[in-house]
Specification:
With 246 residues, the protein is an alpha+beta fold. The protein is 52% helix and 16% strand. The chain folds into two domains: 2-64, no CATH class; 97-245, no CATH class. The chain has five helices and nine strands; from the N terminus they run βββββββββααααα. A hairpin with a 2-residue loop joins β8 and β9 (76-79). The longest helix has 35 residues, at 181-215.
């Protein structure tokens, strides 16, 4: 005999089969149906429906099953957690314009924050840190390099630059391997142009990114803008590296 089981709330859970061991010893033609089960078949259900057994009427009822359904009420996103319950009064399944606007504003804020963070990362790669001592050292090396290329460097100037070159080569600097002192001086001068150009490209990309994100009309557009900026930034950085290593 086929029976239909339900939980403590009456909701259908599964089918099971009774065999001869489940027959009523007082009436061999009947079966002892266990608690929380019935011989009545469950009704045919549509999507978002559940079968709940009504003990009082001894019958199945078709009730809503909206568990997991996202709905909106009072401009807030909510999720149904109760089986058998209808949507609350005033609720809608469609996302209100106010919610869409808030999500778009949050997405813009997050995207701009990410763009600024990535800009800082590229700035560190191109220019280095903002450490004042590093800037002073570079300014001094640039002055020495310019004097060397102009043919006015003293022996002490050349010795100072040579020490810098030796230290970088021993550290395995990939762009300085095999360079002569004259080439090193040229590289320093070129690096100044590289950092200036790099800083300008980063700032321009940052400004462009902010403007594009603020003008976006959807979260999908924001994602496309982020992907495009990432490609453009990487291409620009690769081009700068190529110029510096040439």
């Amino acid at each position: 005999m086929q029976i239909y089981n339900y939980d403590n709330s009456g909701f259908y859970t599964h089918q099971s089969t009774l065999d001869d061991s489940d027959r009523d010893p007082l009436n061999i033609d009947d079966y002892l149906i266990p608690a929380s089960a019935t011989a009545q078949a469950t009704p045919e259900l549509q999507a978002k429906q559940a079968a709940r057994f009504n003990v009082q009427s001894n019958s199945w009822e078709i009730v809503p099953d909206l568990v997991g359904t996202t709905y909106y009420l009072d401009d807030a996103e909510r999720v149904m957690t109760e089986r058998g319950a209808e949507l609350p009064a005033g609720a809608t399944l469609e996302k209100p314009e106010s919610v869409i606007a808030r999500e778009l504003a949050n997405a813009k804020q997050a995207a701009i924050k990410l763009i600024e963070s990535k800009a800082n990362e590229f700035h560190a790669l191109v220019v280095g840190t903002d450490d004042s001592r590093r800037a002073e050292r570079f300014a001094l090396n640039l002055e020495l390099a310019q004097r060397l290329l102009a043919g006015t460097a003293s022996a002490i100037d050349q010795q100072a630059l040579q020490m810098q070159l030796d230290a970088n080569q021993q550290a395995g600097h990939p762009l300085l391997t095999g360079k002569t002192l004259q080439q090193f001086a040229g590289w320093i001068v070129q690096f100044k142009s590289y950092t200036t150009l790099g800083s300008g490209l980063i700032e321009a990309t940052l400004i462009k990114g902010r403007a594009a994100v603020n003008a976006a009309q959807s979260i999908e557009q924001i994602e496309q803008i982020k992907a495009q900026l990432a490609q453009q930034a990487q291409a620009a950085f690769t081009q700068l590296q190529t110029q510096l290593s040439g």
